[in-house]
Design brief:
Phosphorylase Kinase, domain 1, Transferase(Phosphotransferase), domain 1, 394 residues, 15 helices, two-stranded antiparallel ribbon, alpha+beta, globular, 2 domains
Length: 394
């Protein structure tokens, strides 16, 4: 069946953000007036790397519309120059911004958030998917409403993992501070990396900083591989229950085979008990407000903003002073910036779009993990990013 070309059904909105190889724009569906977040990928940049988009679509087709806390892929199509993926537009902001805007914040609030996210992680894992980039920046609220759903977003690094194949991934990818030891060791990884990341996120939600924050990328990596972290300084952890600390410790188990599954994590008493766990205010039975210490630590380090040199943030690398990138990394950086600028200029409503066979109603051909080259774009970006951070820390 030949591809069908039709007028574009969307109108271009404002630019919302920028990722490794794509920009994100607001898009309005012309007939319904509904707003979407649209990932725009320049086709020149994707030449030879089509498997990356094919993989992301394959992942999202499996899980879209199946869980209230997982972002949905509503549409995908291409114009002459770009590929477009249309997602839920989440307008409620990122997780930690929401917490810092609150008047108070208790351990039970953190447990409630982690319980909700872990249920979504379990859903993803049950569908045969590993996310591989769980971090606070990828946890968004659907709307500004008080009771808005929190959503797991950005499946650009996710992979389909068929249990029966017992295949493990070996490429370095993710955001360093949230990456599990086995990713750095390149011993093969899978779904347990998401549980490790959830342990880091839980620690972060309870204290306002991450457990493996160090002065250099090398020291951070060594701390992660060794599982070297502490519940310190004590002033930040005195108001956090031993049950919560035990939950973090369980998730941050170095051996992925001994690490709990998402289902097992949900059975931990910190998440499963009906009565919330907390440290009471002295002389009362009221829970202690964690917000003062969490905000203090968060504002001091702004750790999630620098994201430990996120591997997915090549656009920031490309703007570093002094031309620190060399060779292939510099060429790649320049190409990404140029092609993303081209993508941003395209006016959707002036374009005709093409739906490839299989994009409407039937799943695209899944790209087997075994077929994905180990030297694909993410691996190259990982190496360039980690090398650059190591240089910056010297």
């Amino acid at each position: 069946m030949a591809p069908s070309t039709v007028p574009c059904q969307y109108r271009t909105g404002r630019t919302l953000g920028s990722g490794t190889y794509a920009i994100v724009k607001e898009a309005i569906h012309i007939k319904t007036g509904k707003y979407y977040a649209c990932k725009v990928i320049n086709k020149k940049l994707m030449e030879g790397r089509e498997h990356m988009v094919r993989n992301e679509i394959a992942v999202l087709k499996r899980i879209s519309s199946g869980h209230a806390n997982v972002v949905t892929l509503h549409d995908y199509f291409e114009t002459t120059h770009n590929l477009y993926l249309c997602f839920d537009l989440c307008t409620g902001g990122e997780l930690f911004d929401r917490i810092c805007a609150k008047g108070n914040y208790y351990e039970a609030d953190a447990a409630g958030l982690i319980r909700t996210i872990f249920k979504a992680v379990k859903y993803i894992h049950d569908a045969g998917i590993v996310h591989r980039d769980l971090k606070p920046e990828n946890l968004l609220f659907r709307s500004p409403a008080e009771d808005a759903d929190i959503m797991i977003a950005d499946f650009g690094l996710s992979r389909v993992m068929e249990e029966e194949k017992l295949s493990l991934l070996t490429e370095i990818c993710g955001t360093p501070g949230y990456m599990a030891p086995e990713i750095f060791k390149k011993t093969g990884h899978g779904k347990p990396v998401d549980v490790w990341a959830m342990g880091v996120i839980t620690y972060f939600l309870l204290a306002g900083y991450t457990p493996f924050d160090r002065d250099s990328q090398q020291a951070e990596m060594e701390a992660i591989i060794a599982g070297d972290y502490k519940f310190e300084p004590e002033e930040y952890w005195a108001n956090v229950s031993e049950t919560a600390r035990d939950f973090v410790t369980m998730c941050l188990t170095i051996d992925p085979k001994s690490r709990p599954t998402a289902a097992e994590a949900l059975q931990h008493k910190w998440l499963a008990d009906e009565q919330p766990h907390f440290v009471p205010i002295e002389g009362t039975e009221q829970p202690t407000d964690l917000l003062p210490h969490v905000k203090k630590a968060f504002n001091a380090k702004r750790l999630w903003k620098k994201a430990a040199f996120s591997i997915r943030a090549l656009n920031r690398m490309s703007m570093m002073a002094g031309g620190g990138l060399t060779g292939d990394a510099a060429i790649l950086s320049d190409d990404v910036r140029r092609f993303k600028e081209e993508s941003e200029k395209e006016v959707m409503e002036d374009e005709s779009i093409t739906y490839q066979p299989g994009s409407e109603g039937s799943s695209p051909k899944l790209h087997k993990i075994d077929d994905i080259p180990t030297d694909d774009l993410h691996t190259k970006l990982a190496k360039a990013s980690l090398d650059e951070k190591a240089q910056a820390s010297k």
